[in-house]
Amino acid sequence: MTFFIEVVLSGLMAGIMYSLVALGFVLIFKASGIFNFAQGVMALFAALTLVGFMEKFGMPVWLAIIGTILVMIALAWVIERLMLRHLVNQEPIILFMATIGLAYVLEGLGDILWGSDVKLLDIGIPQGASDWMLDSFDIYVEKLEVFAAVTAAIMVTILAVFFQKTRVGRALRAVADDHQAALSVGISLHTIWVVVWSVSGIVALVAGIMWGSKSGVQFSLSLIALKALPVLILGGFTSVPGAIIGGMIIGVGEKVAEVYLGPFVGGAIENWFAYMLALGFLLFRPQGLFGEKIIERV
Amino acid sequence: MTIDDLSTEVLLKVEDVSLAFGGVKALDGVSFDIRRGEIRAIIGPNGAGKSSMLNVINGFYHPQQGTITYKGQTRKQMRPYEAASQGIARTFQNIALFKGMSTLDNIMTGRNLKMKTNLFWQALHIGPARREELENREAVERIIDFLDIQAIRKKPVGKLPYGLQKRVELGRALAAEPELLLLDEPMAGMNSEEKEDMSRFIIDVNMEFGTTIALIEHDMSVVMDLSDRVVVLDYGCQLADGLPHEIRANKEVIEAYLGVSHD
Fold first, then answer.
1. Inter-chain contact A162–B123, Cβ cutoff 8 Å?
2. What is the pLDDT of residues B69-109, one digit of tens each?
3. B242 has which bridge partners?
4. What is the spatial distance between Cα B176 and Cα B101, in angstroms, rounded to a whole number?
5. Which label site among A19, A53, A104, A106 has the fewest CB atoms less than 10 Å from its CB?
């Protein structure tokens, strides 16, 4: 029994890590209908910048984090200026392709600025097993993953309040729904885009920090974005809670499948389980668990 | 009401406005004015350029020729943001609501420019942002009472019947406390009871808040009852401009427009 709980818990924690990446996708998709292929690279770029600030400029952690946030906001502004502004009213597929281009530009930029070697990221997040859990329940849990879970919970709460209760949050949803109507009540599309890309840049930074602390900052980080895809399909592209719960389902699902089904089929289920689950969802519930149902009025 | 009862202050004036999409002329040298406090109807057959005219006024379309003078300031073109912040609000012919959002949230977006606190306070949802949110919420509740839509406050608007959606859209425009309200066929597709309600709201808005209204409408009896002055467009050209009874008697107008709908 303890072993089962351990498997589920480690699945939950791994799932939260996927969710952190998925969250960035949801934010941009919700506010602009763009599927941002560069989200994973943004997480990588943010983590690289953070490490760079700390190592090359010897900044203390807090200053480096603030510096990186500013860089991500500046990046959002540049993206709006050079890319989004010129693609207003274009087909979603064109915007999607633009974000593929963006992914390569960012990856190259990160390489030129900070180098391509694997870097250690240590901003003082507790590491190792939680002694308390080990002593009282005999269950092994990584402190870093608990930390990531708590951070994700705080972030989702803030984002949910932000989207539901504030003027800018409402404006974001308004822009997603109807550009013209949003313009007519005096919402500036340009501002909204900068805001939403900044927020998702900051979310990318958090994801980058967590992944970087766990396995070092390396360019394969951008591939984690692929694992976020099934999470999005499960949770729904437009739902913030969906990204979190979708991530946890995938995390738990693949760990449990690996441990209990793995021996019968020769293992390595973890690698493809998420995609099979996503395929099943695409067949039977394409809007995901929490996504807005697609209603076409004829 | 006669023309003399109206204030003579001109709120908006368009002069010689022409707008073309490729080779198609949507507007061709149109000039008219809207006086403060009046209800100004824009009528004409389908494709006459009425909606294009509203789109020029609130800055969605930029005319190739002509000027727009609003509150004494003359421009070649408006911009949507500028129009909204200068007190121009509007509704759309094919309702443009935020379908996934509730009635309340839709009308709250109309308060967008009334709310000023910065992103930082909003993200934390405390202090001045909270106070501002509550104040604006009160204003929105007054509009909800005024339009008699308390029962659908929390409902997502995409699921509401057509007539109610039109009402919510009017609410969103009113939430901005506009000086000039542009209504694009506010009664299209409504039954006679809903039309009566909508007419009453339009008159109330005009009388109680002194809001100037420009309205596009096809129902002639509504136009004649509501409006102080009428401008008639046909194929992008201005056919006539005058008091409702003058328009009703105008031979060209009858031929181009009224005659068609009466046969």
1. yes
2. 999 899 999 999 899 999 999 999 888 898 888 999 999 99
3. B230
4. 18
5. A104
Q: Does A216 touch chain B (CB under 8 A)?
A: no
Round the CA-based radius of gyration of chain B to a whole number and report it. 19
The secondary structure element, H or E, covering residue B5 is none
Distance CA(A229)–CA(A211), nearest Å, equals 17
Residue of A162, A170, A184 with shortest CB distance to B84: A184
pLDDT in tens, A61-83: 899 999 999 999 999 999 999 99
Separation between Cα atoms, residue A123 and residue A214, nearest integer Å: 11
Q: How far apart are CA B190 and CA A257, in angstroms?
A: 57
What does the alpha-carbon distance between residue A12 and residue A10 come to, in Å, rounded to a whole number? 5
Mark yes or no for CB contact A166/B158 under 8 Å: no
For CA atoms B77, B82, B84, B85, give the dihedral sign.
negative
Interface check A162 vs B, CB under 8 A: yes
Q: Which residues of A touch B100 (CB under 8 A)?
A: 173, 177, 292
Report the candidate in B28, B2, B238 with the shortest Cα–Cα distance to residue B252. Answer: B238
Chain B residue with the nearest C-alpha to that of A158? B123
Provide φ and ψ at A168, rounded to 5°.
-65, -40
Between A6 and A45, the more confident residue is A45
DSSP A239-295: -HHHHHHHHHHHHHHHHHIIIIIHHHHTS-HHHHHHHHHHHHHHHH-TTTTTSPP--
- Least CB-CB distance to B84: which of A169, A178, A185? A185
Task: Give which of B27, B33, B31 is closest to B229, Cα–Cα.
Answer: B33
Q: How far is A170 from chain B (nearest CA, A)?
A: 7
Calpha distance A283→A264 (Å, rounded)? 26
Contact B158 A295 (CB under 8 A): yes
**Tens-place pLDDT, residues A72-117:** 999 999 999 999 888 877 788 898 999 999 999 999 998 898 887 8
Locate all alpha helices (DSSP H) within chain A, ordered by sequence. Answer: 2-32, 39-56, 61-82, 92-114, 131-137, 143-165, 167-177, 179-184, 189-215, 224-235, 240-256, 262-265, 269-284
Do the beta carbons of residue B96 and residue A181 sit within 8 Å?
yes
For chains A and B, CB pairs below 8 A equal: 87
Q: Which two tokens stand for residue A41?
A: 């690279």
A88 shares contact with chain B (CB less than 8 Å) = no
